[in-house]
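One record is set out below.
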Amino acid sequence: VIFPGYISGMRKAVLLQATWIFAMPSIKETFSIACLEANAYGVPCVAYRISGLETLIDGVNAVLVQPGDIEGLGKAIISLIGDEKKRENLAAKAKQLASRFDWGVTAQRILEVLRCKSGKWD
């Protein structure tokens, strides 16, 4: 278990590449960039089932527990540590989810909306 505090750049990339599970024990989120960054590296999140994390689907691309259930959060992490196959399945779906938010994909969608609204499709 590592509690690195604030990290960025290459150090963040190196740590995420070596990470099996990303725990997100927030009880309030608007949209978790941190989980999405972990997902981009194929790291599944264990988090509370709260608004703001609607892209995370329990048992598909994440493991979600009831808000404030610290014991449940710990059990979910321990369970994933011991279940490589489940971890790999969640990781693959998590990476797939993150690809939907890639800057290139997002920019293309914004351009499509702008072209549609302007009436120019060239």
Remarks:
- The two ends are 52 Å apart (CA to CA).
- The chain has a mean pLDDT of 91.
- The beta strands are 22-24, 45-48, 62-65.
